[in-house]
Amino acid sequence: MRLVLLLVALLAAPAWSAARPDAKALAALPNLSVHAPNFVASGRLEAGDIAALKKAGIRTVIDLSDDEETPDFDEATALGDAGIAYRNLPIDGGNGLTRENVDRFDKLVAAAGNTPTLIHCGSSNRVGALVAMRAALIKGQTVEAAIETGRSWGLKGLEPIVREQLAAVSARTRSAGGKAGPA
After folding, report:
1. Contact 130, 115 (CB under 8 A)
2. Residue 7 lies in a domain
3. pTM (2 decimals)?
4. In what order do the strands lie in the sheet with 85-88?
5. CB–CB of 153/126 below 8 Å?
6. Which domain holds residue 134?
7. Number of compact structural domains in the chain
8. Would you give the DSSP letter of residue 123?
């Protein structure tokens, strides 16, 4: 019996571990970008976008916006009513690009696992900024590779601040003899 259960689990694993969002259903989202295997990024959501998220198979939304940015739209409630998990990490532009927020973002991304997940902010710029910083600080990419990764996720106007933050971490690491000092 155990062997049968193991075989069923192994055969079914690709179906649930590689769930991909239906990008065509999300085509109307602003600044949409698709990232293998299960992540998409975009700009601001509106109430009318919830049905498209559901149709696309999105199961988790990570929102980097502050509630004050959309006072007429209760995103958390709308997504919850649609059966989509909602996570919020408000990033206040460049001021929010801290090591602590990169670590929080990394935990949210890890918790999303292999489920189809949308990460968004107002324009996808903050998404790209956090992705770039995570790529450098946690995943070990070079600054240039991390910036390119961030650009593919929507990094634009925050790029100089991301570069400044990563240079500061690099300088602290060098002055600490290879061990990063506090961020």
Report:
1. no
2. no
3. 0.84
4. 33-35, 39-42, 117-120, 60-63, 85-88
5. no
6. 18-175
7. 1
8. S
Question: Per the domain annotation, does 25 fall within a domain?
Answer: yes
pLDDT in single tens digits along all 183 residues of the chain: 454 333 334 344 444 445 788 889 999 999 999 997 899 999 999 999 999 999 999 999 999 999 889 889 999 999 999 999 999 999 999 999 999 999 999 999 999 999 999 999 999 999 999 999 999 999 999 999 999 999 999 999 999 999 999 998 877 766 665 555 433
Cβ atoms of residues 183 and 152 within 8 Å:
no
Tell me the chain's radius of gyration from C-alpha atoms.
18
Q: What is the CATH number of the domain that holds 25?
A: 3.90.190.10
Is 10 contained in some domain? no
Give the helix/strand (H/E) hosting 149: helix 143-152
| 3: in domain | no
